[in-house]
Design brief:
Layout: H1 18-39, E1 43-47, E2 50-54, E3 57-60, E4 63-66, E5 72-75, E6 79-82, E7 90-105, E8 108-121, E9 132-140, E10 143-147, E11 165-167, E12 173-175, E13 187-188, E14 192-193, E15 199-203, E16 211-218, E17 224-225, E18 233-238, E19 242-247, E20 257-264
Antiparallel strand pairs: 1-4, 2-3, 3-6, 4-5, 7-8, 7-9, 9-10, 11-12, 13-20, 14-20, 15-19, 16-17, 16-20, 18-19
C-alpha cells in the first residue's frame, strides 16, 4: 500500500514557483513541530548546566530547549552571563526565542535562522510569554548558589527514575526522571547477552544475601519479558556479593539478553555506583613478544550504564 501524506510534487517541465518551495518547507516544518510537541515543549531537553563564576557572573553550558510554541532554543557553546541581583537575592534565568536574519535581497532578509536570548528576571514564574526557565540563582554571603530542578527538564525515553542529573553516553547533562514510589535498585546489570546453556557471573558488591531480585529477558525483537523465568533462564545468588545469570540449553529463542536488578531488604545505604574493573584472565607473555591483547570486556558499570572506554596503566 502506497503511503500518502501532504507533500509537494514536482514533475518534469514544471515551472517551480516560490509557492511550491514554501509548501515544501511548510510540510517539513510541520513534521518537525509535531515531533517536538510529542517529545514535550516549554522545557529543556538537555544541557544548560549553570556554574557560578563570581558574585555577578555564571557560566551556562551547551544545551537545547523547546519553548511552548515548539521553537528550538539552542546554545551551541558554553557562555558566560553577567547577572545583577540589585535589591533582590534571587534571580531566574530564562531562554527566549529570537530570529537572526541574514542575506538581504532588495532590503528583505532571505535567510532566517533560529537564535535565542538568555535573560535574568527577579519576578518568579509562571510567565505569560514563551520564556523557558532553566535555573534559579540565590545570592548568599556574596556567593551565587544555583538551583536547577528536574521539573524544568524533559527526561530521555530511557530514563531511570533516579531523580538525578546524569551524563548520557554523548556526555550530555540530562535529568534522569522523577523518582517513582519505589526506590530504584541498588544494583542494575543492564542487559547482558547469555548464550544457550551458558552463564554470566556478576559481582553486585552489596555484601548481603538478604535481597529482592528481579530478572528480565530481552528477545531478538527487542521486547522485554519475564516469561520463562525459572525455566528458560534464572539466577542464583552466590555468597553475599555475587549473582549468576543462567540460561537453559534450548537455543530456539536465538539471541537472549538478561538483566538483573537487586534491592537489599531493610538497607537504605547507597549501592555501588562506580564501575567494577575486570582486566581479564592472567596472561603469560614470552620475553621479546612484540604484541599481546588485553581484554576488559567483563568489566561492568552499574545502574544499567555502559563502559565506553578503558585506560591501561603499566606497573613495573
Amino acid at each position: 500500500m502506497k503511503h500518502e501524506e501532504g507533500s509537494t510534487r514536482f514533475v518534469d517541465g514544471m515551472r517551480v514557483t516560490s509557492e511550491h518551495l514554501v509548501h515544501l518547507q511548510d510540510v517539513l516544518m510541520a513534521a518537525v513541530v509535531y515531533l517536538r510537541q510529542t517529545v514535550g515543549t516549554g522545557k529543556v531537553a538537555y544541557g544548560l548546566k549553570v556554574e557560578p563564576l563570581a558574585a555577578d557572573k555564571v557560566k551556562v553550558g551547551m544545551g537545547i530547549a523547546f519553548d511552548r510554541l515548539a521553537r528550538p532554543l539552542t546554545l551551541e557553546q558554553e557562555k558566560e552571563i553577567a547577572v545583577s541581583f540589585g535589591s533582590s537575592n534571587t534571580l531566574y534565568l530564562i531562554l527566549l526565542y529570537a530570529l537572526r536574519s541574514e542575506t538581504l535581497v532588495n532590503g528583505i532578509p532571505t535567510i532566517l535562522s533560529n537564535d535565542l536570548k538568555i535573560e535574568s528576571r527577579t519576578d518568579a514564574p509562571p510567565y505569560t510569554d514563551e520564556a523557558v526557565l532553566f535555573a534559579e540563582l540565590h545570592l548568599t554571603a556574596g556567593r551565587i548558589e544555583v538551583v536547577q530542578k528536574g521539573e524544568w527538564y524533559l527526561p530521555p525515553l530511557n530514563h531511570g527514575h533516579s531523580g538525578q542529573f546524569l551524563l548520557d553516553q554523548q556526555m550530555r547533562w540530562r535529568f534522569d526522571g522523577h523518582r517513582v514510589g519505589i526506590a530504584g535498585p541498588l544494583y542494575d546489570s543492564g542487559f547482558i547477552q547469555v548464550e544457550a546453556g551458558g552463564e554470566v557471573r556478576l559481582n553486585h558488591g552489596l555484601k548481603t544475601s538478604d535481597l529482592l531480585v528481579q530478572i528480565q529477558a530481552r528477545l531478538p525483537d527487542a521486547s522485554v519479558t519475564n516469561a520463562g523465568v525459572g525455566q528458560n533462564f534464572w539466577y542464583e545468588l552466590v555468597g553475599d556479593q555475587e549473582v549468576r545469570l543462567k540460561r537453559g540449553t534450548d537455543a530456539s529463542a536465538g539471541r537472549l539478553e538478561l538483566r538483573v536488578m537487586i534491592w537489599p531488604y531493610g538497607q537504605a545505604g547507597a549501592g555501588p555506583l562506580l564501575p567494577m574493573a575486570d582486566a581479564g584472565d592472567d596472561l603469560v607473555i614470552e620475553s621479546g613478544s612484540t604484541s599481546f591483547t588485553l581484554d576488559a570486556t567483563r568489566s561492568r558499570a552499574f545502574e544499567g550504564r555502559a563502559i565506553s572506554s578503558y585506560i591501561w596503566l603499566q606497573h613495573s
